[in-house]
Amino acid sequence: MALLLLGQIALGLWMIGLPKDGTGLRASWFNVHKSWGMVLGLLIVLRLAWALLRPRVAPLPQAPALQRAARGTHALLYALMLAMPLSGFLGSVYSGYPIRFFGLRLPTLAARWDGAKELLSSVHYWSAMALIGLIALHLAAFAYHQFVLREPLLQRMRAAPPR
Ligand code: HEM
Ligand code: HEM
C-alpha cells in the first residue's frame, strides 16, 4: 500500500504538468490517476477498519511525549489517507467531467459547481503536501528506531497481538 500510495502521489504531481494540447494524453493519465485513486480509497478504508478492529500490539516503551507524537502522527496519516481519495473524488464529481473507472463511465452524481471544485482541489493539493511531509517524518522515525536504537520494529509489525 505504501508503494501504491507513493506511486499515486508521484503520478498526481507529474500529470498536472502535462499540456492541455487536445491529444487526450492529459485526460487519459488523469483517468488512470482517478481509477487507482478510487482503488486506493477502498483499500485505505479496509486497512483502517482492520487496524481498528484487530487487537493492537502494545506501544513501544518510550517517553509519554514520544508515544503521543507517534500516535498523533499515525492518526494524521490515516486522516490524510482518507482526505486524499475523498477530496479527489468529490472534486472530480463537481468538475463537470465524467469519471471513468478503468474505462467504465460512472453515473454523473452532480452538476458542475466551480466553487466546490476549486475548494476540493485545494484540499487535495494541501493534503498531498502534508502527507508527503508526514511520510518523510514517519520514515525518519522508522529508520531511527530500527537502525539507530535497534528496536525490532519490523518484527513488531508481524508479531501476533496478545489475545
Ligand atoms: C506511504 C507510506 C506510509 C504510510 C502512509 C504509513 C502509515 C502508517 C500508519 C498509519 C501506521 C500506524 C499503524 C497503526 O498502528 O494502526 C504506521 C505504522 C508503522 N509504519 Fe508506516 N507508513 C508508510 C510507510 C512505511 C514504511 C516504508 C515503513 C518501513 C518499512 C513503515 C514502517 C512502519 C512501522 C514499523 C510501523 C509500526 C510502528 C509501531 O511499532 O507501532 N511505514 N505506518
Ligand atoms: C490516495 C489517493 C490519492 C492520492 C494520494 C492523490 C494524489 C494527488 C496528487 C499528489 C496530485 C497533484 C497535486 C494536486 O494538484 O492536487 C493529485 C491531483 C489530482 N487528483 Fe489525486 N490523489 C488521490 C486520489 C484521487 C481520486 C480518487 C481522484 C478522483 C476520482 C483524484 C483526482 C485528482 C485530480 C483531478 C487531480 C488534478 C488536480 C485537481 O484537479 O485537483 N485523485 N492527486
UniProtKB/TrEMBL annotation:
Cytochrome b561 bacterial/Ni-hydrogenase domain boundaries: 1-157
Protein origin, superkingdom: Bacteria
Cofactor(s) the record lists: heme b
Main location: membrane
GO molecular function, one term: heme binding
Keyword annotations: Cell membrane, Electron transport, Heme, Iron, Membrane, Metal-binding, Transmembrane, Transmembrane helix, Transport
One BP term from GO: respiratory electron transport chain
Membrane disposition: Multi-pass membrane protein
A cellular component term, taken from the record's GO annotations: plasma membrane
Pfam families in alphabetical order: Ni_hydr_CYTB
Residue intervals passing through the bilayer: 35-54, 75-97, 125-148
SUPFAM superfamilies found in the cross-reference section: Transmembrane di-heme cytochromes
Compartments it resides in: Cell membrane
InterPro entries: Cyt_b561_bac/Ni-Hgenase, Cytochrome_b561_oxidase, Di-haem_cyt_TM
Record-stated family: Belongs to the cytochrome b561 family.
Protein name: Cytochrome B
